[in-house]
């Protein structure tokens, strides 16, 4: 075994790898960008070295040569790439090996073999792995491809051969739309990957995404069963589970064998995932799954496999990279119970899942869940990287038991200091179709309206917020209370765009009568715990004027000084502001132009995504305050409108 390894990553995966390394007595070296000096992965590592010149990945976590130099200078013998960044970069693997170090992962040639979707499909066909019917050859002539699409039969999917993250992918339902869709997919592929080539695939009906975890030693491989990742929003996984609902022993064996064949065909070493698309229109059938692609690294969702098999996949990665044999044979790998993982992000769901930033004033997870997180209370979610807060992972003896544990765990997860997708995850965990195991990749899109509905604060929640705002949860008998008259106090709180005033009559140290705009809430304290109508008041976090009530997945309020209210009322939709720091990609508004509510006025690129900035109302563009290429701060005024 190695005595010291370097982790070329950040966030939760860097912390995850360090935990196992530590348990094996292996020292860890972290690298970090200028934005991450105070990050959790830096604090966890035995040594940490600043790399690069700035926070952007290209100036930090993608600097392979500098990272290799750090490994050499610190005496690390191996590099774990985590996922993302350099994890599937064959040139990096070559450079690591040329420097006399071990790459904890597959060979460069295995990564190359799976790097392009067309070549990978051809290779898999040869190895006897079922691939989605379609055309994945070299001829890129538009008429030829249209003819192929017609032969495959509509609907078809156009995919960029170099694609990833759903980019360069187009669903075409009708031959008349093929030419336009192909041109736009090729254009997007050229911009994103520098390679316009596309393949054509049959579009699978009611598709399910089921992937198989494999593990190889360079010659032979085993599988650790499947994960179902069908709950996706815009091709991004949201909740994953193992095993797949409705899986039969026959189909599991067929998929497992195909995945092992795929891994062995490329002499795979380490942890990898073979992704299949499954026809879910008529139950699961052993002839109804097809190879999509192989991810030649540890996946974000690997913990669900760990919880149902009891295997520590990072432990296996380190052992196999260090030259040990695979720790178990296929027959020895157990499959016990059911596990779910929910990806908790800092994002504004009602605003179209807009990535958010913020400093986490409070963060806690219930003991019933495994929470893999790269942040702690007090840490900042910066605009530079993925805004993931944590992965909430649970296990139970059955799918139903695990799902109710997931619901409870999400309900008891507490985050303050940023908006989160917790309510969305909670709604998803409670979705009847999901509970029935009736999943497919379209489930979220079909039910999106119900899933994004924000939980509403009740008078009890508002009383809890007001109590904290006034510091009355600790209220002692002498905090202004007089024997002559009950003490009255009031506070004005903001809740989204609205405000309300809460008034309390303190009748004693353990009795408060609240009036929340006409609704009466009586709070009593029993054994130090405040109750309303016999139920515990929810926990509350107070940070400055921001109040978070931990009910309904986190309800946010702000304490408002009534005297300041006039200045806070400027939200008339006249000024289009940058919602977060970022790069102005395009400004469409021209001075004097007439615009309608909802018109796209500019595009801001932030956190690796493009965000359209829309007119909040009809008007005339009075001033354009930003230009293409400007780097702007959150809240910067970009465009000003005036009445028509
Ligand atoms: P990317 O590499 O861009 O993420 P994938 O090939 O992994 O693209 O596909 C992403 C998602 O698109 C899958 O998880 C699935 O939901 C959907 N998908 C891909 N291929 C098909 C297909 N042939 N039929 C239906 N849906 C598909």
UniProtKB/TrEMBL annotation:
Limits of the ATP-grasp domain: 121-322
Q: Mind telling me which PROSITE patterns this protein's record contains?
A: ATP_GRASP, BC, BIOTIN, BIOTINYL_LIPOYL, CPSASE_2, LISH
Q: Domain Lipoyl-binding spans what residues?
A: 567-642
- Taxonomically, the superkingdom here is Bacteria
Nucleotide-binding as a keyword of this entry, yes or no, is: yes
Q: Which InterPro entries match?
A: ATP-grasp, BC-like_N, Biotin_BS, Biotin_carboxylase_complex, Biotin_carboxylation_dom, Biotin_COase_C, Biotin_lipoyl, CPAse_ATP-bd
User: Biotin carboxylation domain spans which residues?
Assistant: 1-449
What is this protein's record name? Answer: Acetyl-/propionyl-coenzyme A carboxylase alpha chain
Species for this entry: Thalassovita mediterranea
């Amino acid at each position: 075994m190695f005595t010291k390894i370097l982790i070329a990553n950040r966030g939760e995966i860097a912390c995850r790898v360090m935990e196992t390394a530590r348990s094996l007595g292996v020292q860890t070296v972290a690298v970090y960008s200028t934005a991450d000096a105070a990050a959790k992965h830096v604090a966890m590592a035995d040594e940490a070295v600043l790399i690069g010149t700035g926070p952007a990945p290209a100036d930090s976590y993608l600097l392979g040569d500098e990272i290799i130099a750090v490994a050499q200078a610190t005496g690390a013998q191996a590099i774990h790439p985590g996922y993302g960044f350099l994890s599937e970069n064959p040139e990096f693997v070559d450079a690591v090996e040329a420097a006399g170090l071990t790459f904890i992962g597959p060979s460069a040639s295995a990564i190359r073999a799976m790097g392009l979707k067309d070549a990978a499909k051809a290779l898999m066909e040869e190895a006897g792995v079922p691939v989605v019917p379609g055309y994945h050859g070299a001829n890129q002539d538009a008429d030829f491809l249209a003819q192929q699409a017609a032969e495959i039969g509509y609907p078809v999917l156009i995919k960029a051969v170099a694609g990833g993250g759903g980019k360069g992918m187009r669903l075409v339902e009708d031959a008349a739309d093929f030419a336009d869709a192909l041109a736009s997919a090729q254009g997007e592929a050229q911009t994103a990957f520098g390679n316009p080539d596309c393949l054509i695939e049959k579009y699978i009906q009611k598709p399910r995404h089921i992937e198989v975890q494999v593990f190889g030693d360079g010659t032979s491989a085993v599988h650790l069963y499947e994960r179902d990742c069908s709950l996706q929003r815009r091709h991004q996984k949201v909740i994953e589970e193992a095993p797949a609902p409705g899986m039969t022993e026959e189909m599991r064996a067929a998929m497992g064998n195909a995945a092992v064949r795929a891994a062995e065909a490329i002499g795979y070493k380490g942890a990898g995932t073979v992704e299949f698309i499954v026809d879910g229109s008529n139950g699961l059938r052993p002839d109804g799954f097809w190879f999509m692609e192989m991810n030649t690294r540890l996946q974000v969702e690997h913990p669900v496999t760990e919880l149902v098999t009891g295997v520590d996949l990072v432990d296996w990665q380190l052992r196999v990279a260090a030259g040990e044999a695979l720790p178990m044979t296929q027959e020895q790998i157990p499959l016990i119970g059911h596990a779910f993982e929910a990806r908790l992000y800092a994002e504004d769901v009602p605003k179209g899942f807009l990535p958010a930033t913020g400093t986490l004033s409070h963060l806690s997870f219930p003991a019933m869940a495994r929470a893999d997180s790269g942040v702690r209370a007090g840490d900042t979610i910066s605009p530079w990287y993925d805004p993931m807060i944590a992965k909430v992972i649970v296990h139970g003896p059955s799918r139903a038991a695990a799902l109710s544990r997931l619901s409870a765990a999400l309900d008891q997860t507490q985050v303050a200091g940023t908006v989160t997708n917790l309510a969305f995850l909670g709604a998803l965990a409670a979705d009847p179709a999901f509970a029935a195991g009736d999943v497919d990749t379209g489930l979220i899109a079909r039910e999106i309206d119900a899933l994004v509905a924000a939980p509403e604060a009740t008078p009890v929640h508002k009383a809890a917020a007001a109590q904290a705002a006034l510091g009355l949860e600790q209220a002692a008998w002498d905090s202004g209370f007089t024997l002559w008259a009950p003490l009255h106090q009031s506070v004005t709180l903001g809740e989204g765009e609205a405000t309300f005033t809460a008034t309390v009559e303190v009748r004693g140290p353990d009795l408060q009568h609240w009036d929340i705009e006409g609704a009466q809430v009586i709070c009593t304290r029993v054994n130090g715990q405040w109750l309303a109508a016999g139920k515990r008041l929810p926990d509350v976090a107070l940070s400055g004027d921001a109040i978070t009530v931990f009910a309904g997945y986190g309800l946010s309020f702000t304490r408002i000084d009534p005297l300041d209210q006039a200045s806070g009322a400027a939200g008339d939709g006249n000024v289009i502001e940058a919602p977060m720091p970022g790069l102005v990609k395009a400004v469409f508004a021209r001075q004097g132009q007439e615009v309608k509510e909802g018109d796209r006025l500019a595009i801001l690129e932030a956190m690796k995504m493009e965000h359209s900035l829309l007119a909040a109302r009809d008007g005339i563009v009075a001033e354009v305050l930003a230009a293409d290429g400007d780097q702007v701060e959150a809240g910067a005024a970009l465009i000003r409108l005036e009445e028509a």
